[in-house]
Amino acid sequence: MTVMRSVRAWLVTIVGAVAVVGLALPQVAVSARSDVQTAPQFLSGYVAEDVMIPMRDGVRLHAQVWRPSEAAGDLPILMTRSPYGFTAERIDHALSKGGGYGELAEDKFIFVFQDIRGRFGSEGDYVTLRPSKTSANGIDEATDTYDTIAWLVKKLPGNNGRVGTFGVSYGGWTAAISTIDPHPALKAVSSQASPEDMFIGDDFLHNGAFRLDYAWSWVSALETDGRTMQRFDFGTEDAYDWYLKQSDLANLDRQKLGRSMPSWQDFVAHPNYDGFWKRRRTSQMMPAKVRVPNLIVAGWWDQEDFYGPMQIYANQEKGDDRNLNYLVVGPWNHGAWRGAGDR
Q1: Averaged pLDDT for residues 288-311
Q2: What confidence tier does 221 reach under pLDDT thresholds 50, 70, 90?
Q3: What is the CATH number of the domain that holds 65?
Q4: Measured between alpha carbons, how far is 80 from 336 in angstroms, rounded to an integer?
Q5: Longest C-alpha distance within the chain, in Å?
Q6: Is the pLDDT of residue 115 over 60?
Q7: Are β-strands 110-115 and 75-82 bridged in parallel, bridged antiparallel, or unpaired?
Q8: Residues 257 and 165 in one domain
Q9: By C-alpha distance, which of 325, 327, 329 is closest to 293?
Q10: pLDDT tens, position by position, 265-296
Q11: Among 11, 217, 231, 234, which has the highest number of CB atoms less than 10 A from its own CB?
């Protein structure tokens, strides 16, 4: 059985999907709503609409809402939030039979794919792995998730008031962060391949060893232009040789990208395991007492985020007195369980 089948069974049980087909879901009347725009039906059997969702500070976040064209009754919502962008074609493929979310799609959820702040269609400023707010009226990914869920359950026609969050990698991190002061409608989480500690074992550094190419590729793709994912042009097929020729890594962002990049300067300013890194540990931001069921997923051959899910699970276990903390680990590399994870 694929892990997505496990996720499917787990989410259906907890969120409460309505898997009844054969009756047409009434079309949503959106012509008078400036924040919603419908799209044509796709091969997956789902229909899509774009929405702009207001946050507590006035910033609006863009999301695509996909609902089955044929379903009866009110449906639960499954949401994933990411900085990488979502195209209609990719979502349609993912929701189709054989796609990464095909088995979930068979159970007739309302799917929501949201761009986080400052990325693609969302307003505001992007901050990589935005830390938790430091004031009562501040914002972070947890408050954005809370505000999004509040808007969805109130504004989306045909939802049953129950929401699950899920995602892989950065999306797994936003799913984990959704457990901080969760909205009452949040009933289930599946945090997959989420980072825990970027200095010790995830993504940018491994036990303090800086992953130069990984970090530079990330910064140059995500922090130069919030609306795209442009790969850095090394001007050569030999990127290793290009790095060897750089004499001033601390100022590489200014020299090659024309300005300081926030994450790059964080790498420069914090070469050791100081409070900057420790405050950003994911499970330290998550509540000590587990209140929302979380299915954590990891892959033995994940070079990016294997440390993360294992540590998040271990730390959450300390406050799991209701048996809500779950772990699935299998023979996969980063995110390979999505789709053909049985081979």
Answers
A1: 96
A2: very high
A3: 3.40.50.1820
A4: 17
A5: 65
A6: yes
A7: parallel
A8: no
A9: 325
A10: 999 999 999 999 999 999 999 999 999 999 99
A11: 11
How far, in Å, CA of 180 to CA of 138, rounded?
Answer: 14
Write down the pLDDT at residue 31. Answer: 32
Same domain, 259 and 305: no
pLDDT at 58: 97
In a domain, 335, yes or no: no
Q: Is 65 within 8 Å of 154 (Cβ atoms)?
A: no
Rounded Cα distance, 321 and 231, in Å:
45
Q: Closest Cα partner for 110 from 150, 153, 55? A: 153
Name which of 48, 85, 270, 268 is nearest 170 in CA terms: 85
Calculate ∠ Cα 148-130-248, nearest 5°. Answer: 145
State phi, psi for 234 to the nearest 5 degrees. -75, -15
Q: Residues 19-56: pLDDT tens digits?
A: 332 222 223 333 334 455 555 558 999 999 999 999 99
194: helix, coil or strand? coil
Residue 162 and residue 140 in one domain: yes
Q: Which residues contact residue 215 at a Cβ distance below 8 angstroms, ignoring those fewer than 6 apart? A: 204, 263, 264, 267
